[in-house]
Task: inverse folding
């Protein structure tokens, strides 16, 4: 009796574990084709390849976007865009404000050059395309 | 590049294996005995090399060629010790265990886990949110900044938790330094190694102290926990900190089981507990919980006097990691935000948090059915009868687990952030990434 109870308990553990493993295994197999596709972070990072050559090797630069993160400590789409910019540009420190000699623009669409200059005091250095722009602080 | 990466990655593991093989009190050479030591060496090797790398950066600003010479010298010393002492202990080796059907099943499970980890890592080579936003980004700062590596802890980067310990970033930056390039292969290797090492450590521990069946069953349960594999590919520090907690507790059990209560086990357990602290702030909670849990269990067993002697030996192992960690916390890390701006919940606010917390425990691990309930039922059927020699360790590790959970609950109580943020942050992070 004792032996049967033990065997049943072990069989239950094995069954539940295998059920779970098979689920994960099936997910892995179905996603296997994605192995050969560049992942979204690598693609996002590649947007910043050109701007890197214009930035100082160290130090702090500013950051501006057409989307505003409510609080950069918390997960959100704009927060992720800002964090990924920092991830791509490290060891340059990217500060989420425009009070720096160099300011990185990270836009989702087009931006108004005149408005940037008038409201933020930012002068365009170069537009790298794909929404990546480098500004310098006027004055 | 691959050769350099592999050499830099394997070097500390091989060094540690040779040292552990020499100092390890039990001289057995069974399949699972060696597996246990290899798993242990993987974690200790990577952890110790990250501590040494950090100390080197503090002392000499950047690694340079002398760092490689230094590590090469340690390798040679370990090799000489291994060859010399290894020969002496060869005569009294006990050959135990054999490669059975269970071992074969276990190997199949491990290879499957490895396959799943590698495929998932190739799909998402930068890891999930915390990996690229915290751990790998910090590693990039340390590797790319040269002598200015302390910029990684700039107040501007407060959102990236610069107070988090450096095991993962320093391990990655060290390998990148040898490779000369910040390839994603390194964080993947670190993550996969800790995940597989945890699995092997658990299985081999139960195999050498109980039976191969127990070892295979334990590894199957862990492997069947989807959260475990997901965290493994996410490149978070949760798996490494879990590895060190498991290893430290396992070595404590071996200490209790050893006939002459060999102090070497305590030193190694202390070092492992220190590495848990060096991996993640939660490791400090584990350390406090372990010390309290052990104090209660040892006192209950009437071994109160021996407790302080044990603690002194344990601290010998802990100190080489705790001092660099203390220096990092004092010199570079800002205060931990949760404690700096803490709040305290009222009873009515606390109740929903307690309910969520209980749900979290019940649904732990993302199993298809509640693993907690299944395991509790099975434990009730099978009964929990610890070996009398390890009764103290069984009690102290249970108490440690309870204190850790209590600590987490208190953090939910005092956090200045929205409680939902703590609960949903991982899911939110992944959802956001998909939307970008």
Result:
């Amino acid at each position: 009796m004792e032996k049967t109870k033990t065997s049943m308990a072990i069989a239950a553990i094995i069954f539940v574990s295998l059920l779970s493993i098979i689920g994960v295994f099936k997910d892995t197999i179905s996603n296997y084709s994605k192995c050969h596709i560049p992942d979204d972070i690598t693609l996002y990072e590649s947007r910043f390849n050109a701007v890197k050559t214009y930035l100082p090797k160290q130090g702090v630069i500013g950051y501006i976007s057409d989307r505003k993160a409510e609080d950069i400590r918390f997960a959100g789409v704009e927060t992720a865009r800002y964090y990924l910019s920092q991830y791509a540009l490290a060891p340059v420190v990217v500060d989420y404000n425009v009070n720096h000699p160099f300011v990185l623009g990270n836009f989702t669409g087009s931006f108004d050059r005149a408005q940037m200059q008038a409201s933020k005091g930012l002068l365009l250095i170069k537009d790298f395309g794909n929404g990546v722009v480098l500004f310098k602080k006027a004055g | 590049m691959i050769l350099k990466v592999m050499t830099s990655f394997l070097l500390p593991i091989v060094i540690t294996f040779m040292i552990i093989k020499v100092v390890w009190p039990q001289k057995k050479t069974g399949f699972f005995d060696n597996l246990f030591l290899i798993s242990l060496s993987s974690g200790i090797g990577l952890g110790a090399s990250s501590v040494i790398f950090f100390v080197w950066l503090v002392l000499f600003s950047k690694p340079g060629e002398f760092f490689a010479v230094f590590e090469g010298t340690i390798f040679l010393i370990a090799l000489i010790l291994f060859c010399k002492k290894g020969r002496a202990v060869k005569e009294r080796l006990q050959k135990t265990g054999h490669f059975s059907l269970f071992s074969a099943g276990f190997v199949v499970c491990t290879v499957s886990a490895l396959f799943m980890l590698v495929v998932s890592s190739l799909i998402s080579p930068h890891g999930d949110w915390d990996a690229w936003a915290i751990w790998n980004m910090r590693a990039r700062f340390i590797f790319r900044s040269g002598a200015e590596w302390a910029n990684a802890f700039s107040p501007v980067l407060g959102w990236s938790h610069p107070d988090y310990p450096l095991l993962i970033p320093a391990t990655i930056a060290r390998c990148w330094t040898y490779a000369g390039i910040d390839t994603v292969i390194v964080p993947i290797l670190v993550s996969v190694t800790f995940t597989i090492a945890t699995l092997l450590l658990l299985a081999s521990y139960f195999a050498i102290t109980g039976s191969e069946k127990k070892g295979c069953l334990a590894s199957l349960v862990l492997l069947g926990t989807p959260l475990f594999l997901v965290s493994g590919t996410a490149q978070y520090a949760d798996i490494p900190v879990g590895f060190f907690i498991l290893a430290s507790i396992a070595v404590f059990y071996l200490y209790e089981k050893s006939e002459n209560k060999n102090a070497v086990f305590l030193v190694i357990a202390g070092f492992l507990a220190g590495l848990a602290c060096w991996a993640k702030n939660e490791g400090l909670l584990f350390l406090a919980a372990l010390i309290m849990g052990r104090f209660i269990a040892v006192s209950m067993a009437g071994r109160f006097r021996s407790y302080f002697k044990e603690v002194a030996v344990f601290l010998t192992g802990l100190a080489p990691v705790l001092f660099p960690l203390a220096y990092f916390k004092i010199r570079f890390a800002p205060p931990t935000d949760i404690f700096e701006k803490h709040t305290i919940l009222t009873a009515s606010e606390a109740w929903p948090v307690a309910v969520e917390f209980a749900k979290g425990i019940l649904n732990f691990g993302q199993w298809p059915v509640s693993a907690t309930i299944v395991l509790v039922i099975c434990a009730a059927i099978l009964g929990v009868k610890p070996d009398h020699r390890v009764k103290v360790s069984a009690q102290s590790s249970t108490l440690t687990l309870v204190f850790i959970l209590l600590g987490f609950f208190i953090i939910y109580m005092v956090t200045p952030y929205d409680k939902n943020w703590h609960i949903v942050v991982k899911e939110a992070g992944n959802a956001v990434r998909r939307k970008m």
Remarks:
- Residues 2-36 of chain A form one domain.
- Chain A has a mean pLDDT of 85.
